[in-house]
Amino acid sequence: MEESTTSTGHRSIEHAGAWALAHVRHRGRSFPALVQHNRVLDLSTRDEVGRPASPSALLQDWDAMLPKLERLAETIGDWIDLAGLQVLSPVEPRQIFQAGANYRTHVLDLVVAHHDGADGRTPEQVRADAAAHMDERLALPPFVFQGLPTAICGPFDDVILPYGAEQPDFELELAAVIGRTARRVPVDQALDYVAGWTIVNDITLREKVFRKDSPGLGADWLASKNHPTFLPVGPVLVPRDALPDPGDLRVTLRLNGQVMQDASTSELIFDVARLVAHCSEVATLLPGDLLLTGSPAGNGLAHGRLLRAGDRMDSTISGLGAQSNLCIPEASEGTA
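Structure for Hydrolase, as requested:
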């Protein structure tokens, strides 16, 4: 995918803690950077951290790099003004794990929205049945699927609505960035494997989630969630210690200035520790991987207002900065 030339302009990146990790482009060159007070320090020139070419290099040895980054955050000089720089995704994951149906109200809204009435149940009955199922889920493993890294774009890049898309929707989510290789991690140790937090908007084509031609096959996550630019990430990675408790962060998305999603991560059915532990039971988590925790209620489908070309999404999560993405149409059929 061709990179956008969108920059931060005059936007301010406010984040928790004394510093955050970013990936920026300046004068035709991209590099990992510390962000502090809307200025950046080019880490690719710093011997202290091995002159890394990307944030991935830092995350491969995060435990060793973290104290060095903390010391560099106190460095005087060599800082660049953030304004005008292009901000890329702060991570380049090899794997993306996506928790689904992880906010109670969101699940109930979607079940009702997708119900076609063929079974004779009223919307109230459908919601009550789904609520009972939610209670049963707590005794079961979380529901997690995988996404593709090629869907990632920057936090201020344009989101391309594919040719022929009927129901493009937004799903703002807290994401954990893995900082250590993890396999069969117990829940009480799971957060030790998290390097930090970032913002993700998991754009979804609602009409593609369930195959009408083969309903028995289940959800088609490839077709519904993995188009180029469908995963704006960033603007920064905030270290875990700056937000040690991700269990009460505000998740807010505005569409053209109107609040659509506004919830707390305290509403998660399965918390971050449970999700990390579950994923590590199935797969080996790698440094730099992304774990999306699910999206709260207030998606476009529930509001009856899906994304259209010309829409702007402004998204924030407490302490993690903000995204702003303009929706544009794909140029023509077959254009990626």
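The CA atoms of residues 19 and 36 lie 5 Å apart.
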